[in-house]
Design goal:
The complex is a heterodimer of chains A (115) and B (112). Chain A has 115 residues and is mainly β. Chain B contains no helices and eleven strands. In chain B, strands 2, 4, 5, 9, 10 and 11 form a six-stranded mixed β-sheet that branches. Chain B has a five-stranded antiparallel β-sheet with strand order 1-3-8-7-6, with no helix packed on it. The chains are: A mainly beta (115), B mainly beta (112). At the A-B interface, strand 5 of A face strand 4, strand 5, strand 9 and strand 10 of B.
Chain lengths: 115, 112
């Protein structure tokens, strides 16, 4: 597709369940980011993939959060044993390449609600 | 590590008045700086960016921002506010090839 695609758009889950959120970046974009957006907290950086380099995981809030990017394209963000404070909109963005002063292209987000 | 501070989580201006949204950054190297906008029920989009060329950067919809190294600021301005400018605005910083870090955002309200 032409833009960044995220799925599911909405996810309601029970506390303690695992969830997977998917991001399909723009074709040819080597940089991929995950952010979390919640009220009053702005965009919180989670993780950054750049080409074949080791990902920058410095923003992951706990070891319940993990992400992978297969084949330099699709990425999955996994949250294990979800908690109510994980409720937020999870945004994925991609960028053409490192060092480009790159514009981020954002997906529509996955809204996660943990009951 | 780089960081961004946006002063004022909510700013209200009258239609036709000057818009000023404040952003201060911290970076150990010359930064790239960005402003993104999120209109109601829409995704984020780039408004403008500074990448070490001209210090006064012009963006879409009449917005501009000035990079001031001495003040570590990158404030966003528009001479005359329009109702359609109501949105949430995010300032962001990147240390060249590193990750892009966003501020907490400023919601702009336009008063008729």
């Amino acid at each position: 597709g032409a833009g960044v695609s995220q799925s599911p758009s909405n996810k309601v889950t029970e506390k303690g369940k695992d969830v997977e959120l998917r991001c399909d970046p723009i074709s040819g974009h080597t940089a991929l980011y995950w952010y979390r957006q919640s009220l009053g907290q702005g965009l919180e950086f989670l993780i950054y993939f750049q080409g074949n380099s080791a990902p920058d995981k410095s923003g992951l809030p706990s070891d319940r959060f993990s992400a992978e990017r297969t084949g330099g394209s699709v990425s999955t963000l996994t949250i294990q044993r979800t908690q109510q404070e994980d409720s937020a909109v999870y945004l994925c963005a991609s960028s053409l390449r490192r060092g480009f002063g790159g514009e981020l292209f954002f997906g529509e987000g996955s809204r996660l609600t943990v009951l | 590590a780089q960081s961004v501070t946006q002063l004022g989580s909510h700013v209200s201006v009258s239609e036709g008045a000057l818009v000023l949204l404040r952003c201060n950054y911290s970076s150990s190297v010359p930064p790239y700086l960005f402003w993104y906008v999120q209109y109601p029920n829409q995704g984020l989009q780039l408004l403008l960016k500074y990448t070490s060329a001209a210090t006064l950067v012009k963006g879409i919809n009449g917005f501009e921002a000035e990079f001031k190294k001495s003040e570590t600021s990158f404030h966003l301005t528009k001479p005359s506010a329009h109702m359609s400018d109501a949105a949430e605005y995010f300032c962001a910083v990147s240390e060249r090839d590193d990750k892009i870090i966003f501020g907490k955002g400023t919601r702009l309200h336009i008063l008729p």
